[in-house]
Amino acid sequence: LSLLSELRQAVINNELRVYLQPKVATADNQVVAAEALIRWQHPEKNLVPPFRFIPFAEQTGYIREITKWMIRSLASQWHALQTHDTPFRVSVNLSTRDLMTASFPTFLEETLAQYNVPASGLCLEITESAIMDDPNFAQRTLEKLSAMGFRLSIDDFGTGYSSLAYLKRLPVNELKVDQSFVFGMIENNSDRMIVQSTIDLAHNLGLDVVAEGVETGEMYQALGELGCEEAQGYFIGKPMPIDEFLAWRKEWN
Ligand code: G
Ligand code: G
Ligand code: NA
Ligand code: MN
């Protein structure tokens, strides 16, 4: 069986799983959002991580079906995730193929309407390399999505080749500092400078900053001192199945 037909079968057989990883505000430790990360519960293998099938799905275009599956799953469970008084967003990773699909904004609008989910309840994470594949087209799609009320985030910031000229024009709300810089920031002065400059750049452009890969309390503390608004990483919580996430959140604060 080819990987593509296996993936198709996985969707039909309900083998894909949504995992959620918390994002907290450094100012008050409140849980403000979660990033949705896909897993494949294969009947014969252990839990298959995304790097084993997402790149392949991107090459073949099947990622569009996976993205739709993810958005439907999140929309159908969005209200169940609103367990506290504070607003809570869910982030989804998009691929370049999603941005290039003309019907994608309409799909989003219809799916959210079906489950009565506000666009502001969803954050769309796009890597800088996905944007730079076709920056002009990406810009038009992002403008459409922004006008619809979605929060837009640039993922893995600092690892690609996005020019600041494009960044300035894009209607994005947040930058995610790539975890490679966060890992190094305590021991390596260059990494710390990169993190600090990225935070300052983002703020000067009116954007919020999320740091990913926050593995220690020392990193969390340092990021808060540098003005980074949100943090995500193993120090706070790992990606978890939704039930586990809800239990984790009850314990958190
Ligand atoms: O979840 P991990 O924790 O292993 O994720 C690895 C990578 O897989 C992430 O960098 C992320 O970009 C990608 N990924 C995870 N879930 C999704 C998804 O639903 N869609 C897309 N396009 N990428 C995903
Ligand atoms: O979409 P993106 O590439 O940013 O996905 C984040 C990836 O990083 C996922 O694979 C997720 O499981 C992983 N991750 C999240 N937090 C941590 C962390 O604190 N340390 C490490 N090593 N990986 C993390
Ligand atoms: Na991401
Ligand atoms: Mn990332």
Automatic annotation (TrEMBL):
Signal peptide: none annotated. Residues 1-253 form the EAL domain. This is Cyclic di-GMP phosphodiesterase Gmr. The gene is gmr_4.
